[in-house]
């Protein structure tokens, strides 16, 4: 097991009706900016509930933070935060609204030239405007971690940021929200969380028995509850396991003491930036060919995954490992997710080359758990995913 | 799944050499009271390392906090905290030293008549003197939670306390400490952590798939690493899994959304107070007869435990459940732990009656996950454990 440090101060309020406790989690006398997305919260009743809970506070609203939160839109919200002297941010939405809020939380206190520095220079935010979240779409885990991903349409870039000040003060998770989420978003959420675990698990063994089992627990649970969630999102037992699995998948418990990969995300972000493919779908496209391309490095963990998660007990290590990749593809496909890049775009050659070029331009440091994947490896992985 | 709230702000520094980072975790200008136990840290080199790390601070020492931390001894430390205007407590030891430090942290700020109120009146501490820990004995999980158990010899009482202010600011966990722990303490540590999980898992099903699997992960890991830890405590892989399992067993992740029991601890504390039996051993004595006495309520979870943790796949639910209790006893016995009360004391009748009488005197509220165990049930469980 590798050395690690861990601290996660986010307070979780989980279950039916937790929105009733919203007001007591926000500092009294706070001037609140309420941030949300495309307006779905106005259809499912959450907007009214939040309005009601926020009555004790002075509240300004900022809607329109869509999937892949856009820098230029967020800069409009930043202007409001500064001019209106906002003291608390409340994100009501999924990962995109929460990520956008994290950017604003950091940007509000950033003294440098332009807040875009936070992304390009990977500045860890140690001082930020406090914020809380009301999660309406389980997927990214952003509700209990300190990371965010921001997109800039102008430059077709999608970059990550974070820092110890960017944990939500609190997150309210009521699994009942799941009943009004469209099937496409449910499938994306399950796929996203599943890939978050794979990135922290399909690497190489370091004798971290407990962390391996914890990762397998999340994968097994997602596999178990996926059919019920897709068939009947008002099934509260399935919904609550889905929601908590998404949070546990990326709240920092799973990667403690183990190597992590994240190459699938790095490549996936480029596919979203270039072609607008849903984030979760880019992961389902890239993960299988990434594992096949880097098979030697990953086969021991893949075989363990095959045995413990997919009950594949026959065959050699390599055979079990290969079979686990097929099972993973079938799992995504079973959710209605296409796992081939050709099902989304026919311009794969240019895609592979563009991604390779971009990584090179940004100052290449090597991807994957061994930091040894070259731009050429990335090009091959993208080609294989076609 | 039941509703839950969760927040755990403790910072964990885990791995080889983390003691080097001690000084930067303590506020500069702190006046530190260094608390420790029976002096084992002076034999294994940790005392010197802590001394070295604490050079930037003004430090006063208080040793002699033994197993089952004693109220009258802690009151001497409280006197020093007040007279010397101590601003930070550092616990270096196992669960007893850390629990004693938590009591002191709360008592230092307590304005009531006597700090014993914190235990008898179950006062939740919301304001306390800050403290950190250096863990030298994995077992209780106290290094990452906000609970403590204090003993008072004068009245033969052992009572629990806690509160949101009683999380350690940081805990340093270096698995290398395990190599100098005597076998008896290693066996106790494994047994203690195992029973912590059972108290949060062997109840009744509520459809919390992820939490069940997380609990099973800790049990499976403890079973896997126990032989290696007992045979060679310098095996770092086994030691690190042992140490992290003990922390994860009681840091608040496992009980989220599920019913918990804790009757085994309630009864076990009385056995320690009456007969001085090691805490972990009281759990190994009581758990099997508790599960047999409350078999109907617990058999579904026991059967799940049988299947997933002990690979018992044949037989009826009841047969599997019964077999899992036998397996649990054998596991403790394999660590050199006697699981029968008669192996510790021959006065079992008086013991059972005394415990029943004490619970009655204290204002009975019912034990177990259904809060329906009567003093008579407790008497029977203790008799069965003979």
From TrEMBL, chains A, B:
<dbReference type="GO" id="GO:0008106">
    <property type="term" value="F:alcohol dehydrogenase (NADP+) activity"/>
</dbReference>
<dbReference type="InterPro" id="IPR044731">
    <property type="entry name" value="BDH-like"/>
</dbReference>
<comment type="similarity">
    <text>Belongs to the iron-containing alcohol dehydrogenase family.</text>
</comment>
<dbReference type="InterPro" id="IPR001670">
    <property type="entry name" value="ADH_Fe/GldA"/>
</dbReference>
<dbReference type="Pfam" id="PF00465">
    <property type="entry name" value="Fe-ADH"/>
</dbReference>
<feature type="domain" description="Fe-containing alcohol dehydrogenase-like C-terminal">
    <location>
        <begin position="188"/>
        <end position="384"/>
    </location>
</feature>
<dbReference type="Pfam" id="PF25137">
    <property type="entry name" value="ADH_Fe_C"/>
</dbReference>
<dbReference type="InterPro" id="IPR018211">
    <property type="entry name" value="ADH_Fe_CS"/>
</dbReference>
<dbReference type="GO" id="GO:0046872">
    <property type="term" value="F:metal ion binding"/>
</dbReference>
<dbReference type="GO" id="GO:1990002">
    <property type="term" value="F:methylglyoxal reductase (NADPH) (acetol producing) activity"/>
</dbReference>
<dbReference type="InterPro" id="IPR056798">
    <property type="entry name" value="ADH_Fe_C"/>
</dbReference>
<dbReference type="GO" id="GO:0005829">
    <property type="term" value="C:cytosol"/>
</dbReference>
<dbReference type="GO" id="GO:1990362">
    <property type="term" value="F:butanol dehydrogenase (NAD+) activity"/>
</dbReference>
<protein>
    <submittedName>
        <fullName>Iron-containing alcohol dehydrogenase</fullName>
    </submittedName>
</protein>
<keyword id="KW-0560">Oxidoreductase</keyword>
<feature type="domain" description="Alcohol dehydrogenase iron-type/glycerol dehydrogenase GldA">
    <location>
        <begin position="9"/>
        <end position="175"/>
    </location>
</feature>
């Amino acid at each position: 097991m590798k050395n690690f440090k861990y601290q996660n101060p986010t307070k979780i309020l989980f279950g039916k009706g937790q929105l009733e406790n919203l007001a007591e989690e926000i500092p009294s006398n706070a001037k609140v900016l309420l941030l949300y997305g495309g307006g779905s919260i106005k259809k499912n009743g959450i907007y009214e509930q939040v309005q009601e809970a926020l009555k004790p506070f002075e509240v300004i609203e900022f809607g329109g933070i869509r999937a892949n939160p856009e820098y230029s839109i967020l800069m409009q919200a930043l202007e409001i935060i500064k001019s209106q002297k906002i003291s608390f941010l409340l994100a009501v939405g999924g990962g995109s609204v929460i990520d956008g809020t994290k950017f604003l939380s950091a940007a509000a206190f950033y003294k440098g030239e332009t807040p875009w520095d936070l992304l390009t220079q990977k500045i860890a935010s140690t001082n930020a405007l406090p914020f809380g979240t009301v999660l309406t779409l389980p997927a990214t885990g952003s509700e209990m971690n300190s990371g965010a991903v921001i997109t800039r349409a102008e430059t077709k870039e999608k970059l990550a940021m974070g820092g110890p000040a960017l944990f939500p003060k609190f997150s309210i998770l009521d699994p009942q929200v799941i009943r009004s989420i469209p099937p496409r978003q449910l499938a994306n959420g399950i796929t996203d969380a599943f890939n978050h675990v794979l990135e922290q698990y399909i690497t190489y063994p370091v004798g971290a028995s407990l962390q391996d089992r914890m990762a397998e627990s999340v994968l097994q649970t997602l596999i178990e509850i996926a059919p019920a969630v897709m068939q009947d999102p008002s099934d509260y037992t399935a919904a609550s396991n889905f929601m908590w699995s998404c949070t546990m998948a990326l709240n920092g418990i799973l990667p403690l003491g183990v190597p992590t990969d994240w190459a699938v995300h790095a490549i996936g972000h480029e596919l979203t930036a270039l072609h607008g493919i849903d984030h979760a779908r880019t992961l389902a496209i890239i993960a299988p060919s990434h594992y096949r391309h880097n098979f030697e490095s990953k086969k021991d963990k893949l075989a363990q995954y095959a045995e413990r998660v997919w009950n594949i007990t026959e065959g050699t290590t390599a055979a079990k490992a290969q079979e686990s990749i097929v099972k993973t593809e079938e799992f995504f496909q079973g959710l209605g997710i296409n796992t081939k890049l050709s099902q989304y775009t026919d311009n794969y050659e240019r895609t592979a080359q563009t991604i390779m070029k971009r990584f090179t331009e940004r100052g290449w440091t090597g991807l994957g758990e061994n930091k040894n994947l070259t731009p050429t490896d990335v090009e091959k992985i993208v080609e294989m995913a076609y």
